[in-house]
Hints:
alpha/beta; Oxidized Rhodanese, domain 1; 2 domains; 5-stranded parallel β-sheet; 11 helices; 10 strands; globular; disordered C terminus; Rhodanese-like_dom
Amino acid sequence: MNRDSPLPNPCDGGQTGHVHPLIEVPALDRLLRRRTPVVLLDARWHLKGPPGIESYRKGHLPGAVFVDLDHDVAGPPGPAGRHPLPEPAAFEAAMRRVGVSEDGLVVVYDDADSTAAARVWWTLRYFGHERVRVLDGGYRAWTESGLPVTTDEPDVKPGDFVARPGRLPVLDAEGAAELAKAGVLLDARAAERFRGEQEPVDPVAGHIPGARNAPTSGNVGVDGRFLPPELLRERFAKLGVTDALDVGAYCGSGVTAAHEILALNLAGIPAALYVGSWSNWVADPSNPVATGENRPDGGD
């Protein structure tokens, strides 16, 4: 586990350094009306269903550029996982192509609940970009506010972003197993996948022994917006998260777990991401697999 990297302060703000990880629709609208320089990234992505680019082409926020989670924000699938970390040079090139610069503000959104947007937020933060915000409620919140969308694709001025990996803590399989015993390892998948009752994507069902189930659906309300920090902190406390323990999260392939990291960040809790997640864990047949419910003490 790498815990030497700085973590964002969820209360920090200003024009330099870390910014609060969320932005509300009215605040983004004001920035755009003032013509404040903002790189808007449309990260809509569907595990099942039409590619996100199709949603983008049907309508997106004015000035937004599409970013492909599978190809721009992750490396090729393989033993490292279905959405492993991209190579720094590849990620740098992808972000420059969509206009991301070193110090410019980036706002990323998806359909509603920020699952895909959180992975883009986390990856940019991991590679050293400090001014990244997620549009709380996403595209749905924008349109429900009566704000305009467009099918026009903007001309993009290439950015000068430089990828500097290692700025957020990560876990590998060994670190995840260790954390499940000595700290708190949260499994962000749906309960039935955690229990091993079904596994629609990966070849083996179940969870990492000692992990505690915390589906990301519990991080947001019915409107797709994140719960208030105090409610998120209460939620994680019930799962055994305390200031005295190291915390990490995983899911199927490191996408919804990034959403968990963002929710933990909002609650003021630093946490490491197991990027390879379950798809990496089960690639090694020697890794143990647990099924069934988890107990409040983290046992199985």
